[in-house]
Specification:
The complex is a heterodimer of chains A (262) and B (322). Chain A has helices spanning 3-19, 24-41, 48-81, 84-88, 93-124, 133-159, 164-178, 190-197, 200-212, 224-256. Chain A is an all-alpha fold and 262 residues long. Chain A is globular, with a radius of gyration of 19 Å. Chain B folds into two domains: 6-236, P-loop containing nucleotide triphosphate hydrolases (Rossmann fold, 3-Layer(aba) Sandwich); 241-319, Alpha-Beta Plaits (2-Layer Sandwich). The two termini of chain B are 43 Å apart. The chains are: A mainly alpha (262), B alpha/beta (322). Chain A binds chain B through residues 2, 4-5, 7-8, 11-12, 15-16, 19-20, 81-83, 85-92, 96-97, 253-257, 259-260, and chain B through 17-18, 55, 58, 61-65, 85, 88-89, 91-93, 95, 97, 99-105, 109, 112-114, 116-119, 145, 161-162, 165. The structure holds adenosine-5'-diphosphate and magnesium ion. Magnesium ion is lined by residues 53-54, 173-174 of chain B. Adenosine-5'-diphosphate (ADP) sits between chains B (17, 27, 29, 47, 49-55) and A (257-258, 261).
Chain lengths: 262, 322
């Protein structure tokens, strides 16, 4: 992996973001709408956990929409745009660029979460307090990065098929539910809860709640350390898998010449 | 070394593709092409659309593996993953058309992005990017978004992008396609200057005049095979038996033109202002005029004669029309 190429991917995505209004919808407007709906629904029973659930839900939703949209779009964009070939024949290759873009998505996700908190506070005066702000910030960042890694894995996997865009759209909704960001995982049917166990963001959301709420009782019955360890382990697996898929893609392009063809 | 230094050696390259139509046979894009390129040359791969130019250049620039045959670029086997990784630091390519840039980024930002990917040292990056913008005459438009560039400016920033790692070999796939004559001339001037600076250039084109103007040596390919090779003068020599026939008739000779096309001759008729029709086509060998006189007689031949073919016409006769 090349740090220079990671930064380049980050910067390119950032510039693209600020110069292209189409990004505003998935990354800012969607989470805003979602949080508003949640807060209106629960406005009579505003207490810490409910607001947090709403705010986290909004944050993760926005983040995920942004990630799925940004990663799968960015790589198909490169393919259609003809920039995939010059990236592929550069010594850095595409993987580092994708990592950089995922870090940008993470940053936008954080900005999003802060925005959502501010809105909740200003409009509803939720008086939301966070038990451990530093840990909260850290676990939130890691959770967002795990979402970005997942988006990256999905995006790369879908390069191998021509129906990438459709598949990533189908994947969009289950993640909201399974990550525990929208509703607590304990409210899900048994089987669905099991799937959550394999999802890095679900552990992340659990860790975030630990950091935010005093005396929070874990969805998985574990402490913040175990949550974070699982988050890190599962994220690493996602990144490694994305790396392998990217290698596979590079080989496939060499074999079939389908870098620019569908 | 006693022999000249070859930086590219392609040996019996072959590349097939699965057909887009399921069940139909494989498409042979490149069918046993061999050639060698010396350091510092401008080498042309000339051929009509679909001849296999892009496929050949993709194989050489490590974007596509050959189905069989060998290609060595700067001594590296393009089918050897490890060798390719090192090779990619020393080559670069520009594919034809408008694609291959981030339109929302400025010209400078595009160059910075790709220089990061090539790991150009930070302290050198700024200077190199400005230098390249200067080389391709885009210093003034450096901070304008590429989406606002003209077609010619895009092509020049493309070339600058491909020069970012100071490549020893630059592959250019139809670098003047879609450009107006003025812009094409600019791009050809740029290619000349790069070559004068010592870069080896492999260029594909379907314009004979472009190959004639730029290339030290070339191959002419058609349907994936080499049909002619050598320097411009050698090619001219090889096609010296091509002659051009011009017939003027009083009636529309479309039927005869179709008959010629069926023989693989690239004939076309134009209506003249005086109500007559002129047909011009290239033939090979010495088959005389008698045959064509008979062919056109139903259309009332006013005149028929042999003329000197242009290089373009000679080339078209070599690749069998199309
Ligand atoms: N990825 C591909 N899959 C299937 N057929 C292809 C592919 N790439 C090229 N071809 C076919 O191979 C032939 C040669 O193509 P190409 O090398 O692009 O020619 P040129 O660049 O000379 O126009 C064409 O008939 C084209 O349709
Ligand atoms: Mg081509």
């Amino acid at each position: 992996m090349s740090p220079r190429a990671v930064c380049a991917g980050f910067r390119q995505q950032a510039i693209q973001f600020f110069t292209d209004p189409q990004w505003i919808i998935p990354s800012l407007i969607t989470p805003f709408m979602f949080t508003m709906v949640m807060l209106f629904l629960y406005k009579d029973q505003m207490d810490g956990p409910v607001v947090l659930q709403a705010v986290l839900g909004g944050g993760v939703l926005g983040m995920w929409a942004n990630t799925v949209f940004a990663s799968s779009f960015s790589i198909s964009y490169d393919r259609i745009n003809g920039t995939l070939e010059p990236i592929l024949i550069s010594p850095s290759g595409a993987y580092s660029v994708l990592i950089g873009r995922s870090i940008w998505s993470t940053a936008i996700g954080l900005a999003n979460a802060l925005l959502v908190f501010a809105i909740a506070e200003l409009m509803f005066g939720t008086g939301l307090s966070v038990a451990d702000p530093a840990l909260f910030f850290l676990t939130l960042t890691l959770t967002l990065f795990s979402l970005a890694s997942m988006g990256m894995l999905i995006a790369t996997t879908f390069i191998l098929t021509r129906r990438g865009r459709i598949l990533s759209s189908i994947m969009e909704y289950p993640i909201y539910v399974l990550s525990g960001a929208m509703v607590p995982i304990t409210a899900l049917p048994e089987g669905a809860g099991m799937i959550s166990l394999a999802l890095a963001p679900a552990w992340g959301v659990d860790a975030v709640k630990h950091a935010a709420i005093d005396g929070y009782s874990s969805m998985f019955g574990v402490g913040i350390l175990e949550d974070s360890a699982m988050l890190a382990a599962l994220s690493s697996i996602l990144l490694a898998a994305a790396f392998l898929v990217m290698r596979r893609i590079e080989r496939k392009i060499l074999e079939t010449g389908s870098a620019t063809r569908y | 070394m006693a022999s000249p230094e070859y930086v590219i050696a392609a040996e019996d390259l072959r590349r097939t593709f699965k057909s887009f139509v399921p069940g139909s046979p494989e498409k042979v894009a490149v069918d046993g092409i061999s050639f060698k390129v010396g350091r510092g040359e401008i080498y042309g791969i000339l051929g009509p659309n679909g001849a296999g130019k892009t496929t050949t250049i993709k194989i050489l620039s490590t974007l596509l593996s050959p189905t069989s045959g060998k290609a060595y670029v700067l001594g590296a086997d393009v089918d050897d993953e490890k060798a390719v990784r090192a090779l990619r630091r020393r080559i670069n390519m520009v594919s034809g058309g408008e694609k291959g840039l981030y339109y929302r980024l400025s010209g400078r930002q595009n160059l910075e992005f790709f220089s990061d990917l090539h790991g150009i040292p930070k302290r050198e990056q700024k200077r190199r990017v400005s230098g390249l913008l200067e080389t391709v005459g885009l210093s003034e438009a450096a901070d304008v978004k590429v989406e606002n560039y003209s077609r010619g400016m895009k092509q020049r920033i493309h070339i600058a992008r491909a020069l970012i790692n100071d490549p020893e070999i630059l592959f250019l796939d139809e670098p003047t396609i879609g450009l107006d004559p003025e812009m094409s001339r600019e791009v050809r001037g740029l290619i000349r200057r790069l070559s004068d600076g010592g870069t080896t250039i492999i260029l594909t084109t379907h314009y004979m005049f472009e190959a004639e103007e730029l290339c030290d040596e070339m191959i002419i390919i058609s349907r994936g095979r080499v049909v002619g090779r050598g320097t411009v003068s050698e090619i001219k020599e090889a096609i010296s038996d091509v002659s051009c026939i011009r017939v003027v008739t009083e009636e529309d000779p479309s039927a005869a033109v179709e008959a010629l096309a069926a023989e693989g001759l690239d004939a076309s008729s134009t209506a003249l202002l005086n109500g007559r029709f002129a047909v011009r086509f290239a033939t090979r060998g010495d088959d005389g005029l008698g045959r064509y006189e008979r062919m056109f007689s139903p259309f009332r031949v006013k005149s028929i004669g042999i003329e000197e073919p242009t290089l373009e016409e000679a080339y078209l006769s070599l690749v069998g029309g199309s």
